[in-house]
Amino acid sequence: MDKKQSENIVKIAAAVLFVAAVAAAGALLTDTASDWYEALVKPAFQPPDLVFPIVWTVLYAMIALSLVRLIGTGRLNMGLLALFAANGLLNVLWSYVFFRMQSPMVAFAVIVAIGVTAVLLIREAWKTDAAAGWLLVPYLVWLAFAAILNYVIAMLN
Q1: Per-residue DSSP letters for 90-133?
Q2: pLDDT tens digit sequence for 36-82
Q3: CA distance 23 to 56
Q4: CA 142, 123, 90: angle at the middle one, nearest 5?
Q5: Residue 8 in this model has a pLDDT that exceeds 90
Q6: Integer distance in angstroms from the first to the last C-alpha of the chain?
Q7: How many CB atoms lie within 10 A of CB 78?
Q8: Residue 43 in contact with residue 152, Cβ under 8 Å?
Q9: Which end of the chain has fewer CB atoms < 10 Å from its terminal CB, N or C?
């Protein structure tokens, strides 16, 4: 294995660990069994609680794969890496704001920011590797649904 391949393996491992850390942090901050959450009025279109960890696991795997593809191109720049980092940190912040601060309206503002970073991620990833961009599209679709859900919960409570 040459030096370049070794460097890529380290970068890929770091990228996957970062995405896994974001997923784990979000999961640790999420408490759907709390009295506060259970008392919230939720819209009829809200999926069962079991759907969320399944969907998020698939989406985080796709985000990690997108990042791995970008690393593989050798053209992952600091701007794109910063977008992935900002997006991940905003995801963790959303879980904290919604579940720990118990503030759906502030969480809605955070999810809008997540959506903006997701659009920028797709646009920038696409320029480097179209497949990496496509891998992020389901994430954006889910974010749009989650934002609507978050907004309706904020309005109902």
Answers
A1: HHHHHHIIIIIS--HHHHHHHHHHHHHHHHHHHHHHHHH-HHHH
A2: 999 999 999 999 999 999 999 999 999 999 999 999 998 889 999 99
A3: 8
A4: 50
A5: no
A6: 57
A7: 8
A8: yes
A9: N
Q: 4 pLDDT exceeds 90? A: no
Nearest CA among 60, 81, 61, 59 for reference residue 125:
81
78: amino acid identity, one letter: M
For residue 99, what are its two tokens? 């579940």
Contact 84, 121 (CB under 8 A): yes
Cβ(154)–Cβ(105) below 8 Å: yes
The CB density around residue 153, as the number of other CB atoms within 10 Å, is: 20
Model confidence pLDDT, tens digit, residues 86-113: 999 999 999 999 999 999 999 999 999 9
Q: Where are the alpha helices (DSSP H) in the chain?
A: 3-29, 35-39, 51-73, 78-95, 104-128, 130-156
- Burial zone of 82 (CB within 10 Å; 0-12 exposed, 13-18 middle, 19+ buried): exposed
Token pair 């496509």 in the structure block, residue: 134
Closest CA to 73 of 134, 131, 139, 136: 131
Nearest CA to 139 out of 86, 64, 70 is that of: 64
